[in-house]
Amino acid sequence: MRRPVQALLLALSGLGLLKATLLSDLYLRYVKEGMRPLLVASGVVLLALGAAEGWSYAARLRRAPAADGSPAPPGDTPDHGHGPPWVAWLLFLPALSLLFWAPPALGAYTASRETPQAVPVTDQDDFDPLPATSPLPLTLGDFTRRVQQDRSRAVQGRTVLMAGFVTPDGSGDGWYLTRLILNCCAADAQSVKVRVHGVAAPKADTWVAVTGTWHPSGTLGTSSAEAGLDARTVERIARPSNGYTDGPPLVTG
What we know:
The chain is an alpha/beta fold. Helices cover 28% and strands 17% of the residues.
């Protein structure tokens, strides 16, 4: 690939990263919030490398002999009618996508193909008394632990509030309230799901806040209990800033 094209690719990649991190929150679609400083630094480095490469190439052109037949500037590949391999041009696609069309965040398509994350076993003594708040805000993981591990059955009869996005059941019968959890980036995403009963499924990937009570199935406080909810209300919400964590709902009801 000729040096001017290399410089342009570096510059576009750097600009794309800076746009996604400094001028918007697009980076949150692919990585955790804590990765932002590293992405900003990477964008600055790529932009600087692109500028340095372009300046170096321009300087070599200015020093090159003007006579016909003179050698090409050092470091540049003469053009004999054969450009770079066509596959090299595909490198521009991710750079341009960050600038003009950012891929959507992970959602129901990914969650429906991921094995749900195993909820860690919690010692019985580690369950704190639940506050009297109603509806009670819980994460999907906390709700699952309470349903399957809390022998005091503290969630029985309690109206809880959880938030996530809609993932249709693969069989077409019912749907799940879902969260995707990232350890680092989209490549290591894992899902946590709670099945929702009693309400027709909204459109896949819609973010919703759901209130309801535990759906009696199995023995509460044991692994036989289903992490399910008899929904009372389903309210559409905006995708929260903590969308890639199993965070508490950022709504009050």
